[in-house]
């Protein structure tokens, strides 16, 4: 069974490139013929994770693997890590600095949105080392 | 599946096989093959970008021709709001409508008037909480078709109301039927259009079985006739009835401006529309309830089959608006929006899909990625595909070869040449005297 493996670099604090990886994945899922509502789930949850890596994580990498029945998106950053995951999962909770909020980001919906749209969400984080988010969306 | 009809067409004699159109097409629907452009029908949305950019005027729009009006005993003309902006400011709207009528029509009904009715219906829909927001205007048929091929997630957001053109045809026909007791079948309604997309939506409507419009005449084809008729207009004739709200539909921002709410967004230019639709599809557009999206820059005044520069036309249009009352002089017909609701619906056309079978599609996508890696990435278009990625896609679909890329071909030739030189230096042992 063949799968497609993709890798994207996520540059730190670059809001122009931010979102490009998830939009690229969206186009590929369209070419495979995945239905629109599932593409939406994958695209939104990946976008949120990507933006988080840009804002908080000092950038990182996105590794995407597309199977015939699901897509697995792994976003790895080497940022500060999340001290309290439970707190971070609450809607509206944000540690984004003012200058990020002024740009319309940092509303504290990143992780809650990932949870909402992903079929499976795994968070591996260590303070001082970084965070890895694994999003699975089933077709 | 219904056969695809398109108004946008190619004049093969004029086409020189350049790459201008393939690179501007928003759905990558054109390839150059055998030094001629070829439109992939399933992908074409009739936006007319190719008509606009072709330096040799090889892209045309299929035309009903003015003679079509003679198929009917009683002829109604339905001028698009964008017609007014095409002429010199010294002509009033009454002048233009009189001149238009004098060309051979029995009755004039301004589409701008119908636009006000659609605006009223849209205002009713906006109040309905069950309707998905943001609502996306269906006034521009190219935009609706764009959603069909590229944004299936937005099909539910389309405003499923008939277009001002359809409403105008319907009302005009029943008015005439009632007033003069003329049989419906004897009445022909003809739309004066700024674009090809409207002609497509008359020939193969997505919102119902059959259009109320019997023919479409492009502004560029009737312009001269109107112009000469403007020389002897009767200044006492009053034909203009539409209000400024309706006339403004020709502009980008006109339709949304008539809705009476701030929660609107208007976007024009098909490539800008795509960017906004990406935002809506990703749920990133907040506090917007209505999106007016028009394929042409500047709105319908910038239509590919208009003649006057869009920015000049805008100032003329403004003049006509200032001379009109805000709303139609007879008041608009009070009717429930339900009369205008589509009787059929648009379906997703998955033209970007690589294969019907998901596993096979994945294999093809994998191959596509590998091929793309190997291509030079210059997006030169010399292979006839709009960019390197599209070439990789065409190869996977079996409609192109890797050596269609001139750089790849050269690489191969170089390799072969080197091999020949190397082989040329080798002599068969029986002939090699130095050995």
From TrEMBL, chain A:
<dbReference type="GO" id="GO:0005524">
    <property type="term" value="F:ATP binding"/>
</dbReference>
<dbReference type="InterPro" id="IPR003594">
    <property type="entry name" value="HATPase_dom"/>
</dbReference>
<keyword id="KW-0067">ATP-binding</keyword>
<feature type="domain" description="Histidine kinase/HSP90-like ATPase">
    <location>
        <begin position="51"/>
        <end position="137"/>
    </location>
</feature>
<dbReference type="InterPro" id="IPR036890">
    <property type="entry name" value="HATPase_C_sf"/>
</dbReference>
<protein>
    <submittedName>
        <fullName>ATP-binding protein</fullName>
    </submittedName>
</protein>
<dbReference type="Pfam" id="PF02518">
    <property type="entry name" value="HATPase_c"/>
</dbReference>
<keyword id="KW-0547">Nucleotide-binding</keyword>
UniProtKB/TrEMBL annotation, chain B:
<dbReference type="Pfam" id="PF04060">
    <property type="entry name" value="FeS"/>
</dbReference>
<protein>
    <submittedName>
        <fullName>4Fe-4S dicluster domain-containing protein</fullName>
    </submittedName>
</protein>
<dbReference type="InterPro" id="IPR004108">
    <property type="entry name" value="Fe_hydrogenase_lsu_C"/>
</dbReference>
<dbReference type="InterPro" id="IPR050340">
    <property type="entry name" value="Cytosolic_Fe-S_CAF"/>
</dbReference>
<dbReference type="GO" id="GO:0051539">
    <property type="term" value="F:4 iron, 4 sulfur cluster binding"/>
</dbReference>
<dbReference type="Pfam" id="PF02906">
    <property type="entry name" value="Fe_hyd_lg_C"/>
</dbReference>
<keyword id="KW-0408">Iron</keyword>
<dbReference type="InterPro" id="IPR017896">
    <property type="entry name" value="4Fe4S_Fe-S-bd"/>
</dbReference>
<dbReference type="InterPro" id="IPR017900">
    <property type="entry name" value="4Fe4S_Fe_S_CS"/>
</dbReference>
<keyword id="KW-0411">Iron-sulfur</keyword>
<dbReference type="Pfam" id="PF13237">
    <property type="entry name" value="Fer4_10"/>
</dbReference>
<keyword id="KW-0004">4Fe-4S</keyword>
<keyword id="KW-0479">Metal-binding</keyword>
<dbReference type="InterPro" id="IPR009016">
    <property type="entry name" value="Fe_hydrogenase"/>
</dbReference>
<dbReference type="GO" id="GO:0046872">
    <property type="term" value="F:metal ion binding"/>
</dbReference>
<dbReference type="InterPro" id="IPR007202">
    <property type="entry name" value="4Fe-4S_dom"/>
</dbReference>
């Amino acid at each position: 069974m063949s799968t497609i493996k993709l890798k994207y670099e996520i540059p730190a604090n670059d809001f122009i490139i931010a979102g490009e990886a998830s939009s690229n994945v969206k186009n590929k899922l369209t070419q495979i013929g995945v239905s629109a509502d599932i593409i939406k789930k994958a695209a939104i949850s990946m976008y949120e994770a990507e933006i988080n890596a840009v804002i908080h994580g000092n950038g990182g990498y996105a590794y995407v693997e597309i199977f015939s029945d699901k897509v697995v998106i792994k976003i790895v950053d080497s940022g500060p890590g999340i001290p309290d995951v439970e707190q971070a999962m609450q809607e509206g909770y944000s540690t984004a600095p003012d200058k990020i909020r002024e740009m319309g980001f940092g509303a504290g919906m990143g992780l809650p949105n990932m949870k909402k749209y992903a079929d499976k969400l795994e968070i591996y984080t260590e303070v001082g080392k970084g965070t890895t988010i694994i999003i699975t969306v089933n077709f | 599946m219904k056969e695809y009809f398109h108004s946008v067409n190619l004049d093969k004699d004029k086409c020189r096989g350049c790459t201008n159109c393939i690179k501007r097409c928003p759905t990558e629907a054109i390839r150059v093959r055998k030094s001629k452009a070829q439109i992939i029908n399933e992908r074409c949305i009739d936006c007319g970008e190719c008509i606009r950019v072709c330096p040799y005027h090889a892209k045309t729009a299929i035309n009903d021709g003015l003679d079509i009006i003679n198929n009917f005993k009683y002829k109604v003309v339905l001028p698009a709001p964008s017609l007014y902006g095409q002429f010199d400011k010294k002509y009033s709207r009454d002048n233009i409508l009189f001149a238009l009528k004098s060309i051979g029509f029995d009755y004039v009904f301004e589409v701008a008037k119908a636009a006000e009715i659609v605006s009223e219906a849209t205002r009713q829909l906006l109040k309905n909480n069950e309707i998905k927001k943001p609502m996306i205007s269906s006034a521009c048929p190219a935009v609706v078709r764009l959603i069909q091929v590229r944004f299936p997630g937005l099909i539910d957001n389309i405003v499923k109301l008939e277009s001002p053109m359809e409403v105008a045809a319907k009302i005009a026909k029943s008015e005439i039927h009632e007033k003069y007791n003329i049989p419906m079948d004897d009445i022909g309604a003809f739309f004066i259009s700024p674009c090809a997309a409207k002609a497509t939506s008359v020939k193969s409507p997505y919102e119902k079985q059959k259009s109320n419009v019997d023919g479409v005449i492009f502004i560029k084809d009737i312009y001269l006739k109107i112009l000469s008729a403007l020389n002897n207009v009767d200044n006492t004739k009053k034909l203009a009835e539409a209000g400024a709200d309706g006339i403004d539909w020709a502009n980008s921002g006109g339709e949304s401006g008539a809705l009476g709410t701030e929660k609107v967004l208007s976007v024009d230019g098909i490539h800008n529309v795509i960017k906004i639709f990406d935002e809506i599809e990703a749920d990133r557009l907040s506090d917007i309830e209505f999106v007016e999206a028009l394929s042409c820059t500047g709105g319908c005044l910038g239509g590919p089959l208009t003649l006057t520069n869009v920015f000049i036309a805008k100032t003329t249009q403004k003049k006509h608006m200032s001379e009109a009352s805000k709303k139609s002089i007879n008041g608009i017909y009070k009717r429930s929006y339900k009369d205008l609701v589509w009787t059929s619906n648009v379906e997703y056309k998955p033209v970007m899909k690589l294969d019907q079978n998901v596993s096979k599609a994945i294999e093809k996508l994998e191959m596509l990625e590998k091929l793309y890696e190997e291509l030079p990435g210059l997006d030169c278009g010399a292979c006839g595909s709009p960019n390197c990625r599209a070439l990789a896609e065409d190869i996977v679909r079996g409609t192109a070869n890797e050596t269609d890329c001139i750089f790849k071909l050269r690489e191969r030739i170089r390799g072969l040449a080197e091999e020949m030189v190397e082989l040329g230096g080798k002599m068969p042992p029986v002939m090699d005297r130095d050995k």
